[in-house]
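Why this split exists: single-chain examples teach little about how molecules sit against one another. For that reason, every record in the complexes split bundles all components of an assembly together and asks for one structure covering all of them. Below is a record exactly as it appears in the raw files.
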Amino acid sequence: MSLPDLDERFDELVLELRATQVSAPAGLRDRVEALVKAEPEERPARRQRRRLRLPLRRLALVAVPVAVVLAAAGALVGGLATSGGGSRQTSGSLQRALVPKALPARPAPAPNASLHAATGAGATIAPSPGRAQLYTADIYLRVKDLSAATKSALATARSLGGYVRSVNYDDGKDSGSAELVLRVPLRAVQTAIVRFSALGTILQQHVDAQDVQPRIDARFRQMQALRLQISKLQKLPVTDSTTAKISKLQRELRVLQADQARETREYSFATIALSLTSKQPAKPKPQPVPPSRIDRTLDRAGAILLDEAVVVLYVLIVGGPIALLAAFFLAGGRAVRRRGEARLLERS
Amino acid sequence: MSDEFAAVAEQHLDDVYSYLVYLTGDRDTAEDLAAETFEKALRSWKRFDPRRGSAKTWLCQIARSRALDHFRSEQRRRRREDLYAVREPVDHEEVFGRGLSPWLERALKTLSAGEREVIALRVLLGLDAESASRLLGISPTACSTRLNRALTKLEERVRTYVAA
């Protein structure tokens, strides 16, 4: 009956030691029996508490997975609560972002006493017949074929009795532009604008019609007055003085007549500035598909889990050294106590 | 509860007593300490968990704690009384059981309490290396080493006494 970790040479010694069992004396046996009898019966509730006590290690074995599951569940619930509804997200800014810009922002019309219009369609302001008007139009068009559109615009102006004041044509590899300043008879300006508008897509249009008839009328009255004065002076006897006055008035009348003729010619034509471009609008970037509710929930849950992990990491970083130090002192204290006990037993 | 404890006490009374006899080398002291051990065990019985170890090991742990307290108080008392010399047991006294050869009895008395303790736990009480090492607060290997050394020393002493 030797011990497995013991040398066989001790077998005889072990047998002898075991053969002489030490029995407790009767006095001790009585004392212990008396102790047991003196102890009152434990109350059932106390007994129940004892059975319900859980060992710390087993408790930790359960508590750690439970804590992990709770953290994951909390993150999932938090993600679900903060992910929002499915349809609300697609409204508002997202829908606005999906609509391409058809027209660039229009400049604010300058304050003007005259009639003016800034439109995106081919609307025009009809000139008032029989009245002198300073009529200008700025049309900005996007065309597919810049060359053909330019030629067509020039031909249109000429066919309506107008002419070209200036042309600036620049056609590049990918896109090009042309700036035309055309003079079109006022009577045909509406036709011209409609035809120009048909060349492409109107990006911007500005029409300005300023009534200048009062100025023409005033000059005409001035001219009539001069003519009356001249006529009166011509009826007087011819002297150097009257001759000089008549000459002066006639010069003034000629100047006024020239201005009147020039302005009348000027106002009989409308000026149309036609800007053509072949540059295509940038295609709107395809918007990413809005994430589904499940994706958002998982994203939020992941973020919450990350936050929880950061907190745990922080606690570990802060509490780790303290726990390590405490464990070191505990282990050290235990070792010192064991060593003291061993010394005590060696000396006893 | 009392019935359970009474059964355990009845079953392990001799074990605890013999362990304390070997540990202290004094039957009277061992008897007092054994009584204290069972008193303490009775009070702590609700804390006993059979899954963590046998009742014998648990009782021996309490007994060891009481014995260590006893040794400490003895040490303090000796210091106070300036009696540093270890009390020599009476040669003819049969401390470790009837039937032991006088040489073995005498050799056991010369061993330290620590050496007798490991012999008591492993040889007399029959605890396995793991239970004994847990009780002693050392590794199983250290426990085996300690037992081998104690038995070697005991054997040498016995041989010396026989030869003399």
